[in-house]
Amino acid sequence: MADWSWNLDAASSEPLRSYEDVLVKRIFHPWACHLLGVLRPEPGSRAIDVATGPGTVARMLAASVGPRGSVLGTDISPGMLDLARAKPPVDGAAIEYAECGADSLRAPDAAYDVVVCQHGLQFFPDRRAALSELHRVAADGARLAISLWAGLESNPMFRALHDAVSAELGEQQAQDFRQPWSLPADEVVQLLHEVGFVDVRRTPAALPVHVPEGAEGLSCVYRLSAIAEELEQLHPTAHEALMQNLRTRLAPLLHDGTIHAVTSAEVVTATATSTRPA
């Protein structure tokens, strides 16, 4: 099974610009607001945002914890981190960014009061190792919040992207594409218990999103996905067939060229303890 590739090397790349202009602005920013609303970080907190991407959640954390707090954003993609670092400073805590995998965080033990991962866990090769690392860097009593997409059956906009791939490119490509919507929250809850978190809770949530860029804008997801390389090799006729299929499937969600859809996810929260599992 192919993996999604977020390892975009240059902040000037077209896929990265599309990610920022469409996906972050229309989808990930609203979900970041929801995630921090659930977590409610206190002023002065030390926070870490794992899989920070272009710094969306890290910047919100910086504003929330204020100048007495601190924020570290980590990501494995140098291109994403370049984009994050290029943004103007936030009125709040200083933000440090570090290039590292989630299973080998460049952070000391028990250093953070707030630990966040938005829509990133499903991409980690070793989720248990990554969650164990989150526990390692969390101080006693630290609060954790993780967001995970619900299944495609609860996300009609993403389902349209998937079903167009299935119809035009085949089931293997569709299986590779559906990775972000394939991690059950129950599995995450179990892993969190195993690595030492307590008070683990999962809460379903649904948020409306609006994508004025329409099907063409939303299709940037394809260029960031596990099937990106294959799409680059498609004959123009086949590519247009894929896009036409996508437009047809999105038609019920379109009004005046804007996609109006509900996106569904699970937010899993937990508390860290000083007791480390054997």
Overview of the structural elements:
One of its GO terms (biological process) is methylation. It comes from Actinopolyspora biskrensis. Keywords: Methyltransferase, Transferase. By secondary structure, this protein is an alpha/beta fold. The protein has a domain at 14-153 and 180-211 and 261-271: Vaccinia Virus protein VP39 (Rossmann fold). Helix content is 42%, strand content 23%. The chain is built from 11 helices and 8 strands. The radius of gyration is 19 Å and the shape is globular. It starts with 13 loop residues before the first helix and ends in a 7-residue tail after the last strand. Residues 6-12 have low confidence and may be disordered.
Poorly predicted runs are 6-12
What's the total helix number?
11
Report the CATH superfamily of the domain at 14-153 and 180-211 and 261-271: Vaccinia Virus protein VP39
The appropriate CATH architecture of the domain at 14-153 and 180-211 and 261-271 is 3-Layer(aba) Sandwich
Largest sheet, in brief, is: 8 strands, mixed
Number of strands: 8
Question: Helicity range of the residues?
Answer: 40-55%
Instruction: Determine the mean pLDDT.
Output: 93
**Distance N terminus to C terminus?**
33 Å
Spell the H/E element sequence. HEHEHEEHEHHHEHHHHEE
The CATH topology name of the domain at 14-153 and 180-211 and 261-271 reads Rossmann fold
Which percent band covers the strand fraction? 15-25%
Instruction: Please state the structural category.
Output: alpha/beta
CATH class of the domain at 14-153 and 180-211 and 261-271: Alpha Beta
Assign an overall shape: globular
Rounded Rg = 19 Å
Organism: Actinopolyspora biskrensis
Keywords: Methyltransferase, Transferase
Domain Methyltransferase: 48-141
Pfam family, one: Methyltransf_25
